[in-house]
Structures are given as C-alpha cells and as structure tokens.
Design a protein that fits this description.
Elements (H helix, E strand, L loop, with lengths): L1 H47 L3 H4 L2 H28 L6 H34 L4 H4 L2 H27 L24 H33 L6 H22 L4 H9 L4 H30 L3 H9 L19
Length: about 325
C-alpha cells in the first residue's frame, strides 16, 4: 500500500513543480519584453520633453499624451499580471481602483489617435489654416476633453458597481484574481461595457477612416503637396493599425470567456499568456517604435538618450520639425 501512495505523492510533486516552473518561464518571457519597452517608452517620454520643438508642436504634444497613456496602461497590466502569477488575491476596492485606472488609460489611447488623425487631416487639406486651428491651446483643450470624457466613463462604471450588494458578501476579499472580468459583478456592468466598446470602436474607426479618405481626395488636387499628402496618408494608415491593436483588448475578455468553456485549465492559462503579450504588451510599445524610427526629428534624440547620451554622429545640434506625419 505504501508504493501507490509514494507514487501518487511523486506525481503530485511533479505537477506542482511543473506548474511553478511553467509560471516562472511564462512570467519571464512576458516581463522581460515588458521591461524593455517600458524603458524605451520612458526614454521616449523624456526625449519628448527635452527640447522646445517637442513641447511647442501640437503633434508631439499629442504623441506625448498617447505614449503616457500607453506606458501607464503597460505598467498597470504588468502589475495585475504579476499579482495573478504570484496568486495574490486583492480586495474588491483595491482591484476596482486598479482596473478603473487601467480602463481610463486604455480609453485615452484611441481618442488621442483620433485627434492626431484629425490634426493630419487639417495639415493636408487646410494647410493655410493649420497654424490657426491646431494651436498649442487647442491641443491642450483637446487633451483635457479626452481625459475628462474617459474619466466620465470610469465614473459611470463605478456607479454601476455601487449597485452591487457588497454587504451580502462574507468578505470583501476576492475569490479570484483581479481582472476586468472579475469586476463585472452584474449584468448591467457587462452590457454597459459592450455598448461603450462598440461606440468607441465605431466612432474612432469612422473618424480615422474619414480623415484617410479626405487626405486621399486632397492628394488628387493639383494644389496639394503630393509628398506631404502621401506621408500623411501613410501615417493615417498606421494610426488605423494602432487603433485596431489598441481596441483589440476589447475582444480579450469575450475570447477568454469562450475559451474557458471549451479548453482545459492549463491550456487556458497558456493561451491567456500569449494573448497578454500580443494584445496588451505589443500595442502599447508600437507608438514609440513607429515614431522613434520614422520621425527624423525624434529618431536622433531618442537614440541619443537610449545610448546614455553618448556622442553619436549625425545628431543635429538643434532639432527641427520633420516633414513626417
């Protein structure tokens, strides 16, 4: 009788070790690229505040806002991921605070992309009025409106959560790991999330697509700078790709819910890790890669700071706004 018990104990120990080892491998594979891109994003944010040309140009101010929201979202997502890997369960108030902050930063990104697309549309279609329409003040007002509208949505989610009878719970300690799904405590919250997601996706897609069509039409005009229109068209295409990747996180929860009903637990965890990298980490570092490589004004400054301020050849002493975007 001792041999079967010993064998069963060994199998159980192997499964525990395999689970721990697999968690360590997955957490390393996700945390390392996340830390790398956090460093790149942080360097990019510092670079965008290092020269007056970046602080006094509307498109760079909008880019800073986009990068700030993406970086904050990346930090919060990684924090929630580490808590889940360490199997730490939070209380409902703490989890609600973290998820609401994550939702806020997640919604700022698509709205900022919309404003950046409209700015490019005005620059190509109304070049003579661009300086009077796209001013520093108007850009700051647009950023304030973006954060205010996103905060209003978060406040609405908080009000919906307050309707949940928390007093009927034995404890405020969560029984599962902290996530958006865990905070859908009622059907009203889930329905509101779906409706708002559809509104955000449709409105942002229409705005960017309309800007793209407007630039294409303007490019056919004889009075339009062909090179500028082509660059603006390419930038708007990239914004559309960024928007799609940014909003791909909205289908993350429905896919996981569907998978949880069809696959085993260990397969579900593996797929969840892959989705986390592809849907959360990659889109949040795309902006710094796109502008850090394409924009000839940002590129030398970014490389200068990434290389710890070593002297690199080809870095201009005084940055000027590039004709990109």
């Amino acid at each position: 009788m001792t041999y079967p018990n010993k064998s069963l104990t060994n199998v159980s120990t192997d499964l525990q070790y395999q689970g721990l080892l697999e968690r360590m491998v997955f957490s390393t594979l996700t945390s390392v690229p996340c830390c790398v891109f956090l460093f790149i994003n942080g360097t990019m944010l510092f670079a965008l505040r290092s020269k007056p040309v970046f602080r006094e140009t509307s498109r760079y101010i909008l880019l800073y806002n986009l990068l700030f929201a993406d970086t904050a979202q990346l930090v919060l997502s990684q924090l929630l991921y580490i808590l889940a890997v360490c199997r730490m369960k939070l209380t409902y108030p703490v989890c609600g605070f973290l998820t609401m902050l994550a939702d806020l930063t997640n919604e700022v990104s698509p709205f900022t992309l919309v404003v950046m697309s409209l700015e490019r549309y005005v620059a190509v279609c109304y070049p003579l009025r661009h300086a009077t329409i796209i001013t520093i003040r108007n850009t700051q007002v647009a950023i304030i409106v973006i954060w205010a509208f996103s905060s209003l949505n978060v406040l609405t989610r908080v009000v919906l959560l307050l309707d949940f009878p928390f007093e009927d719970l034995e404890s405020l300690q969560m029984k599962d790991f902290c996530s958006d799904i865990a905070m859908f405590l009622g059907p009203v919250s889930a329905h509101y999330d779906k409706a708002y997601t559809c509104f955000l996706f449709i409105s942002a897609s229409v705005a960017i697509t309309s800007s793209y069509v407007g630039v294409i039409v303007a490019a056919r005009s004889a009075s339009t700078d062909k090179a500028s229109a082509r660059k603006a068209r390419n930038t708007l295409l990239l914004h559309l790709v960024q928007l799609s990747l940014s909003l791909s996180s909205t289908i993350y929860n429905p896919i996981l819910v569907a998978l949880s009903k069809t696959v085993t637990r260990i397969v579900f965890v593996r797929v969840q890790n892959v989705f986390y990298v592809c849907i959360f980490i990659f889109p949040r570092c795309l902006s710094s890669l796109i502008y850090g490589i394409r924009d000839q004004t940002i590129r030398p400054v970014l490389l200068y700071h990434l290389c710890c301020r070593l002297k690199l050849s080809g870095i201009p002493a005084k940055a000027e706004v590039s004709p990109l975007t």
